[in-house]
Amino acid sequence: MTDTTKQPKIQVRDVTISYAGKAVLRNLSLDIHPNERLAIIGPANSGKTSLLRCLNRLNDLQYGFSVTGQILLDGRDIYAPNVDVAALRRRVGMVYAVPVPLPWSMYENIVFGLRVTGIRDKATLDERVETSLKSAVLWDEIKDRLHEPAHNLSGGQQQRLCLARVLALHPDVLILDEPCSGLDPISTGKIEDALAELAARHTIILVTNNTKQASRASDRIAFFLMGELVETGPTTQIFTKPNDPRTDDYITGRFG
Amino acid sequence: MKQDKAIAFALMLIALSAVSGLALITVFIFKEGLPLILKSGAGGFFFSTDWDPKAKQFGIFSMIVGSLVVTAGAMIIGTVFGLGLAIVLTIFCPKALAAILKPLIELLAGIPSVVYGFIGVVTIVPFIRDYFGGPGLSVLATSIVLGVMVLPTVTSISIDALKSVPRSYWEGSIALGATEWQSTHMVMLKAARSGIVAAIILGMGRAVGETMAVIMVCGNTLEIPSTPLDPLRTLTSNIALEMGYATGEHREALFATAVTLFVIIMILNIAALTIARRGIMSNNR
Amino acid sequence: MRLLSPAQAQKVAVATMWTLAAITIGILVFIIGYILVLGLPYVTWSFLTEAPRQMGRSGGILPMIVATVAVAGLAVLIAGPVGVATAVYLTEYTREGRLTSFIRFGADCLAGIPSIIFGLFGFVFFTITLGMGLSVISGALTLALMVLPTIIRTAEVAIRAVPYSYREVSYGLGTTRWQMITKVVLPSALPGICTGVVLSVGRSISETAAVMLTAGSAPRMPESMFDSSRTLALHFYILSREGISMTNAYATASVLIISILSLNVIAYWIMNRFMRRVR
Ligand SMILES: Nc1ncnc2c1ncn2[C@@H]1O[C@H](COP(=O)(O)OP(=O)(O)OP(=O)(O)O)[C@@H](O)[C@H]1O
Ligand SMILES: [Mg+2]
Fold first, then answer.
1. CA A178 to ligand 1: nearest atom
2. What backbone torsions phi and psi does residue A27 show, to the nearest 5 degrees?
3. Average pLDDT for chain C
């Protein structure tokens, strides 16, 4: 599945992330290949979220934030001065730990990003809503009540709606920050199913605190610890014979 | 990005309009009023009781006294009632009832000042005339009307101050066996002190600046009132009464009256803002 | 020596507080009741739709209604966008610092300035210096300045109540800051903003001193923005003060009170729905 012969989708080169001068992620280098599902695991505060929020430059909004090194998407530096940040964020779609439906109908939530890019045509919008909801494994549950408020959905459904909302924009890369942290096993399963399908068309980076989920839903794993990348490797290898004893400690739950 | 910068700049310019408005007001009021004050001198303007536009006598001392006296009277009423209400609404009253009472108090703030003045004229003034004597149009009537008018200001700002006191203070005090009233005046009022003082000062600003209601009930005489039943004239009523026909130096004198009023108001405003800000800081500490 | 035991003091205090509250509400009910009982019977259809005759001794108040709507409406139409833009700037485009304190200080001071001073300023600045004369537009501009702080304050509170996560979601979906503000933040804050606007309309309608000096007192139908006009509140003042017609004064006051009451109810209703949605 992981195709290492092509150019990497994302190249993270010697990246250091700091808030107010305090480095929280140091000298990280990591390649992420097209159509792979990379899971990032690691204990709290190891800098996983910080990295994700750099990939779509959401951290630009944070006061005191700074990043050094380079992050390349398809070989181009996303922090270069002439980058269209809004377009970048459409290409690198993010799903947050807590689902945040905007206070509109489900339909409006999904077409919002499209409307902003200037797509007005009803048929196109309808089609995108349907395909993205299907990809997010939500279509069958809500197809008859698309115009109800999105707040009426359950937490698990809301999270899949948020996934569909991102998918509607046809992103290249999906970054998901603990998308299942507040969900029941059934909803979690549905999201994992969706991700498995989506890997055919997207590059997926999944941050998770759940090592079982990482083992189920990824091709490769990166283990972060206290702001450093300890090791990366194919999922099966990390779970059977990791190179670093700290990785072993973490996934077997002996960490601490 | 460039567009964003342009929007930010445009918004900043618009955001400065409140400050610019304040600056314009200050400049124009002073430009029109200051020359006459300088010409008459402090003694001839602030400390003289001779107001006779025909004779070019412009002394506003009696109006300064008038404004201060009715403001003091109004604040007694406004503070007692306003603070009482704030305490009832935040501490003693069930939530549901408070939800009904609060908008009613805000409604009180929405009633036009001419209506307050009018009600004062048709109810309070005759009552005072019949039962206490004098012309009815008096310090007492004006103070009562103004007191009711500043009550919503005092109430709503005091409520904010009381609400900003951490709930643990109240619970701690009750847990130590204090009665609700003891906890109220020994803990809550003390902790909310600076906000309440700010509320009272802002209420004072309202009272000093109120015009239409005052014109209707104060009597507008030029003497310094010596009892609560005497009529009086305030700075504001002086301006509003005579502005309609004033020209030349007379008009300048009215603007000079406004300069005096403006300075008093600004001092009160700044005092209230400083005290309120200090209060917020000490509560956060 | 203590006069009362703590338990007794508690009883006395609570009783006193409740009495004060009851008196206040009593005053409110009395004022509104008094005006409406004496005035409403005279508020007839022809009173609302006719011009005044003999300086208001008889006839109706149509020109005053039009003048009030024009002056207050225009004032809010001017102050609304300026106030909301200021609030957007304060909340979305800067961090707290010298400039924001400066702007807030300006707005707070403006809020404390008495209406008679606004009137005097409007008189020298708009009517004389800018040559607008005693007119609807002079009155409206003066009132706009007067209600600006209220609109800034309420809009700022409403905008801040919009969850930060909405902004992140919007950015995440590839909107610019301006799109995020116009498409996500402002629509969510709209009810709160409307409350401030409606209350400002109420204040503009109630205002007398500032309008008297800037919009004039001619009791006729304003035909353009540059015509002098007489608002309802001023008409009421003139009728009652000059003793022209008590019945018409009461009736005019009733119309005023009903308008203010309705505006407050509307503002309260919008706010309640808003609170329920934001939770
Ligand atoms: N906006 C910010 N300002 C300052 N420090 C921050 C900010 N965001 C994150 N940090 C710090 O950066 C470090 C890494 O945080 P990050 O959220 O990336 O960790 P994480 O690996 O995602 O943890 P978790 O598993 O708990 O989500 C933490 O010490 C955190 O306190
Ligand atoms: Mg995280």
1. 27
2. 45, 50
3. 92
B186-224 as b/e: b if 16+ CB within 10 A? ebbbebbebbbbbbbbbbbbbbbbbbbbbbbbbbbebeb
Assigned domain for A174 exists: yes
pTM, two decimal places: 0.91
Instruction: Collapse the DSSP code of C59 into the 3-class scheme (helix H, G, I; strand E, B; otherwise coil) and give the result.
Output: strand
Q: How many residues comprise chain A?
A: 256
Q: Other CB atoms closer than 10 Å to residue C60's CB: what's the count?
A: 22
Chain C CB contacts of B152 below 8 Å: none
Which residue, among C268, C250, C127, has the nearest Cα to C195 in the 3D structure? Answer: C268
- By CA distance, what is A98's nearest residue in C? C165
For the CA of A224, the nearest atom of ligand 1: 21
Separation between Cα atoms, residue B259 and residue B254, nearest integer Å: 9
Give A150-204 pLDDT, tens digit per residue: 999 999 999 999 999 999 999 999 999 999 988 889 989 999 999 999 999 999 9
- How far apart (Å, rounded) are the C-alpha atoms in residues B61 and B39? 16
Stretches in chain A below the pLDDT threshold 50 = 1, 256
How many other C-beta atoms can be found within 10 angstroms of the C-beta atom of residue A245?
Answer: 10
Q: Which CATH superfamily is domain C45-278 in?
A: MetI-like (1.10.3720.10)
Q: Is C241 helix (H, G, I), strand (E, B) or coil?
A: helix
Q: What is the ipTM of this complex?
A: 0.93
Residue ranges covered by each domain of chain C: 6-42, 45-278
How far lies A158's CA from each of A89, A114, A202, A232, C106, in Å? Answer: 21, 19, 21, 32, 44
Q: What CATH number is associated with residue A216? A: 3.40.50.300
**Which residue on chain C is closest to A151 by alpha carbon?**
C277
The fold of the B60-284 domain, in CATH, is MetI-like fold (1.10.3720)
Angle at A225 (CA atoms; ends A223, A231), nearest 5 degrees: 35
- The answer to whether residue B100 neighbours chain C at the CB level (below 8 Å) is no
Cα of C223 to nearest chain B Cα, Å: 23
**Burial of A14 per CB tally in 10 Å (0-12, 13-18, 19+):** exposed
